[in-house]
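Hi X.,

You mentioned you wanted examples for the new student's onboarding notes, showing what a folding record looks like when two proteins sit in one file. Here is a clean example. The first protein comes first, with its sequence line followed by its C-alpha cells.
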Amino acid sequence: VWDYSTSQLIYQSGIITAFPLLSLLIDEENKQIITGCAEGQLWIFSLIRDHNYRCVTHIDLKKEQEKFCNKVWKSGKEIGEGQNKLCKTDNIGPEGSVETSLPILLIEHCDFFVCFPKEENIYSSQNTSYFWIGTSTGLLIINLANFELEAFLSYRDYRDLSIRIARSCALTRKAANGKILCLITSMFEDMIAVLEVNLAALVRTQHRENSDFLPSGNEKSLSVIASITSYIFHFLSNHYFRVIGQYKLNYFPTGVKNTVKDKPLVFHNQIKSSGYTAAPRMTIFSPNTNLRRKEVPKWKTRCKCKNKEYPLESYPPIKYVKEISVTCKPTPIFCVQYSGDGELLACGQADKTVLIFNSNLTDVHNVFSGHDGAVNSVGWSHDRKWLVSASEDRTLRVWSVCNKKPALILGKEKFHKTVRFAQFYFMDTFILLCCGAEFHLLNFHLDTTKDDLKRYKQRSVCKLVQKFPMTSTMEITSLSAVNEFYSYIVLVAGSNRALEVFDLNAGCSTAVIQEAHVRSVHQICQNKGSSFSTQQPEAYNLFLTTAAGDGIKLWDLRTLR
C-alpha cells in the first residue's frame, strides 16, 4: 500500500501464495482490497490503518463452488424423494478432462439490488456488497456479508458458446434493463465472445428459498408443456444467458505476416544448395484458366428457397402423389422421420442402412451404414445436426448429418436386449431409448474430432442417468417424448397392452391405462410442436395411439381418456 501524496510505501504483505496474483479490486465503500490468484483463492485485506492492513478472510472458490452446487441439489431433495432427477446429472465432458486450477481473471462490483424490484425482499440486508468473480470456467457472484456464493454460471453448460476455457474477461459494471454484458477471450483460440446475463433470473433460478420457483407438489393434473415454475426448467434452460456474438480474431494486420522472408533450407556456405529457390528450368504444369464455377448441390441452398404455404382451409394431405423405390431390391422400411424444419427425411431400413432424402424425395442426401442388423428407429436432434439410430444388433449410433462416420457408438455390452426405440430428449440434453421392459435416460457429449495417434478411439462419451421400468410388462413396444420444447412427460406402451405415463421431473410413473387397445400399441404419436406455427397449450396434451386391427385412438393427457 502506497501513500499517493508522499509516494511512500506504507505497508507490504508477506508472500500470501505461491501462485501469481491475477486480479485486484479496491472496495472503497467497505475500505478493503480483494485479490485473486491463479489457483482459485481470494484474499480480502482491510485498508483501515488501525487494522494494520490485516487479512480479513481467505476464500477457496473451488470449495465454495462445490458447497453451492451441493446446496442446490440438497434443496431439490427436500421437495420430495425422487424429484428433480433431470438436474442431478453431472456436466459430462470428454474422457480424461481434469480441471486442475481455477484462475481468478476478474473481480468487479455487481449491480445486484438494481436488478430486483423494490418490493421483492428476498434478501435480509440491502447494505450487503456483491461482487462478480470471473474465472477461466465461468462467472460467480459472491456475497461479502457471509463470503458465500449467490449464483454460478459455467461456460461449458451452453452449447451455443464455443469458448469453454477463458483467458481473460471483462464485465459492464452497471446493469442495463437488469442485464450485464460480459466479454471473454478463449484460452486456446483466437476468438472472443460477447455474452448477455440476466442477473435477476440467474439468482432466482438458483435460489431455492424463493417458494415461487418450487414445484408445489399439489398439482395432480398432467401437462406435456413443462411448468414455468419448475426448477429444472429454469436450471437447464438458458433463459438468463444469451450469446450475443462470437468472433474470430486476426492478430496480424495487413503486411505484417509477409515481413518474414523465405530462406533456403541449407545455410552453410560449403554445402551446395538444392536449388529450390532458383527459377524453374521448365514449365511442368500449365495453369487452367478456363475454370467453371463449381455447382453447389441443391440441398445446400435449400434455406434460400421459400417453402410453399399450405392453405389453412384445406383438408389434410391425403392425395396420393408418388412412390419411389429406395433400393434396387425389395427392402422393408421400418421407420421414417422428418427433420423439424421439414427439409430432410430419414429412413431406417431392413438392409442395415439409414437413408437421408431431401424433402421432395428427388435426391439422396446421405447414406449411413454400420449397423449389423435392421434399423428399428431414427430420430433427429432439435438443431437438425445429429441423427440417432437404434438397431436389432443391440447398438445405438449417433450420426453427424454432414459426416458418414458415427460420432457415438453404444455397443452390445451396454444393452441386454434389442434397442427398439431411441430419440433425443429435453432439447437435445438427453437421449431416451427403450430396451426390454425399461427405458434409459442417457446424458451425452458429442465430439467428432480425432486424435492422430489414436484415431480408433471414440472421443464422444455417454453416461447412464437412470433406468425406468414399465409396470408388469415383458417388453416396451413404443415410446414417445417431446424434444422441440421442454417437457417432462414420457409415454410408453408395453406388450401387456397398457399405456403408462412417466413424469421425469418426479422420476416415477404417474399414471397407467390398462387395456389401451385389444393388442399391443405399436405407435404413439404426439403433437410435438412446429417451428413454423404456434398452437394453444392445451393442444399439446393430445396424443394418438394405434394397434394392429384396432384402429387409432385419440387421448387427452389431462383426463387420461
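Then the second protein repeats the pattern, sequence line and then C-alpha cells:
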Amino acid sequence: KVKSNNLDVKVAESELETEEKGTEEESTRESDSNILDVSSDYPREKHVSIQRHLADLEKLADLKEDEKKTCPLCPEEKFKACYSHKLHRHLQNLHWKVSVEFEGYRMCICHLPCRPVKPNLVGDQTLSKMGAHYHCIICSATITRRTDMIGHINRHVNKGETESRFITVPPPKSSYEVLKESATDVQVLPNYSTPHKTDSYFNPKMKLNRQLIFCALAVLAEERKPIECLDAFGATGIMGLQWAKHLRSSVKVTINDCNENSVTMIQENCHLNKMKVKLNTKEEDNDEAMGDGEENTDTIEVTKMDANVIMHLRSFDFIHLDPFGTSVNYLDSAFRNVRNLGIVSLTSTDTSSLYAKAQHVALRHYGCNIVRTEYYKELAARVVIAAVTRAAARCNKGIEVLLAVALEHFVLVVVRVLRGPSPADDSAKKIRYLIHCQWCEERIFQKEGNMVEENPYQQLPCDCHGSMPGKTAVVLGPLWSGALFNTGFLRRMLFEALQYGLDEAQPLLKTLVYEAECTTSKHFSTHSPYEETKQEECGVYIKTPNTYAESYLVHGKRKSDEVIRNAAKRQKSENSAEHPAFYYNIHRHSIKGMNMPKLNKFLKYLSKAGYRVSRTHFDPMGVRTNAPLAQFKTILMKYSTPTYTGGQAEGPLHLAEGVQAGEQVQADGKAEDAEFLEDDKSGVTAATFTKDYPTHCAAD
C-alpha cells in the first residue's frame, strides 16, 4: 500500500510538471505572437542584405588583405572563406549587381537560410532547396525572383505603402553640400544631380526654368495679394524658398513632396534660410489653421502627401508642376480647385517623347500623333498645351496661354485659368489637326468643321501631291492652334526680371516679346508696364491704379464679372494681330551651291516684302513669318550669291538668277550695309546665339 501511494504521488508530480511545461510553452507562444505583432507595427532593424552602398557590405565582411573572410550573405557550405580581392568580386557580381533599388536602398540577393524549408526534405536536399531570395524593405517578405520582387515593391507603392518599417539611419550631416542660387541656400546630398539615386534631386541646368516661373508668380502677386502658391514637387524646396524669400508677405508658400527624406531636407533648408516652417502631413484641409495676419510672414508650409491629394483638397492661386517626366497624370487635379484667373505652370522633361524620338510614348501619354519636323520644339509645346486644354475643359475651365518655352532639357507652359463653360468651349475649339507635307515641310492647320473633305491636300499651299507620286502629307495632332505668348504678360515678366536682377531670364524674355509681337524692332522700354498694357492681355483683368473699372468691383461678384466679360470682348477685337504659327529654318531651305544672306538681313528683306517676321527662341536659325514657304524660298533665292563664278551643266538658271541677285545686292549695297553696320558692330550675328535660345535681343 505504501508503495502504491508513493507511485500515485510520483504520477501526480509528473502530471503537474507536464501541465506547468504546457502553460510555459503556451505563454511563450503568446509572448512570441505578441512580439511578432509588435514587430510588424514598430520599426526594427533591417536585414543585412539591405544596404545603401557596396562599401557597407564590405564592412560587414570586415575585409583584410592577409585574412580569409566568409561572405556575410552566403552560408559557409555554399561559399568558403577567401581573401579580400576574391570576396570583393563575389559581393559585387553575385549580390550587388542583381539587387533591387528602392528609395536609396539596395535589396541584395541573399543565400542565407532565411526561408522555411519543407519538413520532408533532409540533408543535402534542404541545402539545394534553400535558394537565393530577396528581403522586402517594407514588409520583410522573402521573395525568390527579382522580377517578382520589383512587382512586389510596385504593389506597395500603388497602395501608398512607401514607408519602410525598418529603422533607417539618415546620412551624416557632414555629407551634405550647400549650394546657392538667387540668394537662396540649399543643402543637398553629394549625388544630387542623379534623380534615381537621391531623394534631394537638384538640377543646376534648370536655373533658367526657375527664374521664368518666379517672374510669372511675381506678376500674379502684383495683381492680387496675398496669393496661395503651391510647389507640388518640392525635392530640395529651392523654388518655394525663392518665392518666399523674395516676395515675402505677397505669397503664402506651400511646398509638398511625398518622400519623407525630401520633406526632412525641405525643413532643414527652410531653417538654413531663416524661414519658419509649418509641417502638415495629414491628408485633410487645414485652411483654418493657416489664418491671416502677420504671424504667417516668412512662414512656409511643408506638406507630405501625394500631389493629386493636396490639389484635390485645397485651392490655390498659383500651382507649379515639375514631376519626373510627363505631368499629364496631375492635370485633372490641378485644374479642379485652382481659383479663377489663377495660373498653372508645368514643366515637362519627357523630351524624348515630345521631340518625336519616341512617338509611341507621345501617343500613349498625350494622345497625339507627331513626327520629327524642323519645328519639332514648337510642336512639342503645342502638344502639351492641347493636353492642358482638355484637362481644363473637363473641369469647365478655359485657358489663356501666357508663355510657352521649349529648350534642350524641358518644355515650360504657363497658362491662366478662366472659369466657366464659355471659356472652356472657346479653348477647346482651338485644338485642331495639322497637315504636314513630308516633301517640302509646308504645314497648315485643318479648317474648322466636321464635314469630310474629298481632297484634304487642297488645303496645303504647296503642289507636292500633284508633282510627287503617292501620299505626300501626314496628319499630326490634335494640337493647340492658338497663340503661344501673351505680349503684355511677357513685358511685365521682363520688368520683374529687371527688378529682381535675374540675368539669365532677361535676354530670353526680350526675345519672347519680339517673337510674340512678330517684329525685329530693337526699341524697348524698361519702365513699369502696368499702366500702359492693360488692354494687351486677352481675357485678363489687371488691377491698375486710377482705373474706372475698380469702382464697379465693390458692388458684387456679378457686376465685376460683367466688367471682365466686356473688357475681354473689347480686347479680342483689338488684338486681332496674332503671331503666326510655326517657323522655318533658314539652313533647312538653303540652296545648294549658294551663299545665304546673313539672317538679320534676310529678316529685313522679308519685312520689305510686306510680311511679318521675327526670330524665335525655339531655333537659333529659325524665322517666324506669315509668308508661305514658296515666297520664303523665292526671297531666299533672290538674295543668295553663288559660291563660285565658274558655270557647270547643272542648274544654269539658278546660277544666272543668283548672279543677277548678287549684282542687285551690290548695286543696293552701300545704303543697306550702312543700315546694318550698327547691328553688326553690336554682335547681331548668328554667332551670338547660345545653344538653347538667341541672346541678340538683349541689346536695347
